[in-house]
Design brief:
The protein has 451 residues and is mainly alpha-helical. The chain contains 17 helices and no strands. The chain has one domain. 82% of the residues lie in helices and 0% in strands.
Length: 451
Amino acid sequence: MNFINTIITNFFTGHSRTVKAKKQIIYSFILKGFSIVIGLAFVPLILNYLDAERYGIWLTLSSIIGWFSFFDFGLGNGLRNRFAEAIANNDHELARTYVSTTYAVLSATFIVVLIIFYIVNPFLNWQTILNTHAVGSKELKIVALMIFTFFILQFLFKLIGTIAMADQRPAVNSSLTLLGNLTAFIIIFIFTKTTKGSLIILSTALSVAPVLVLVLATYFFFHTDYKKYIPSYKYIDLTKSKDLLGLGFKFFYVQVAAIIFFSTTNFLIAQFANQESVAAYNIAFKYLFTVNMLYFIVLTPFWSAVTDAYSKNDYSWLKNSLRKLIMISGIMVIGLVILLLLSPYIYKIWIGDKLSIPFSLSLIITLYLIFQVVLAPFTNFINGFGKLKLGIYTITLQLIIFLPVAILLGHKFGAFGIVLSMVFVHLISLIVEPLQVYKLINQKAYGIWNK
């Protein structure tokens, strides 16, 4: 008992910034643990409700619509850093101005985007886009409209989670994700017992549930914890949008690259293989990504904590935190290898004989996720610093290389080749990002390294 008390006491001692981060990590671990269980349970539930091809269609369509997230121009992440800086300096009026301006700009932007999509959607041939004839064109148009509408609403209302993360409370954001997923799971479970498999019903449940939770959470938090930051037209200052967009545009560029790297993967696999391969890739990725998800729980509080520390020139805390995070990265790599070795047995228990997942596909996904784990602390620190210009140049080079390599390898090796192309292009980041962080925390960053 004394030993346990000593561990607990040591865990909750240290710099107030670190203690706050540790508490949020514990809360997030609990919440994310439930989210992981629900996410894993979703797969057999949906496969029993739909066949593998229709599941692949939904995944691909969701990924394509996810491309439209770049229309926020990085304002969400810009808000996260600027809001954190404002409250670190006790300038609550400025923080409210940033919040009000972000909501105003995003609302106007998304209304325009939504109107354009409603006009264009009837003319899109989704069967050709998705490379499938298993579902009728009319049904695909309805599904696309449903997913896109609520995707836009979700993107706007999830700003409350961004504000909580800027306040170094990522557990709040995790709880909203959990509640959204749990609500959707319950609805889908009921539908599996009462209706026949329907892509429209599935897309409705998975799209509406998270938005409903976020709308209620937005109302709750802006009338309680964040009442002094509640958006108001009186605090809309479009001159501040330049400040948000200046930093936000850099995040925007990074987001576009992420969309191309991740969302395009499903589309490319559908084109060079088939929808069953899309389902296999996503199931394997979901399983193996569990380790990365757990690590991101640890990392999430550090983004805004790094912003706070950097604003106060607390380089000692930055160095100490980075050193510990790198050690945790090593543990996570071991975890990924263990999951890979267990994957054939886990797949058999998890999804049975409904879908075959090649070990080679799991292997290349594991290698890619190892790259993510190694880079994660450095990426997190760079985001917290807001020093993204070098990253923009790096990502530009990666984008130039990625598409032709993905097409070449996709033609030859299918899903394996497309993931292999992602591994190849991220070798550049393994060199650039650690070097930039080293320069920044040792105050040796000049020129492009400090922009």
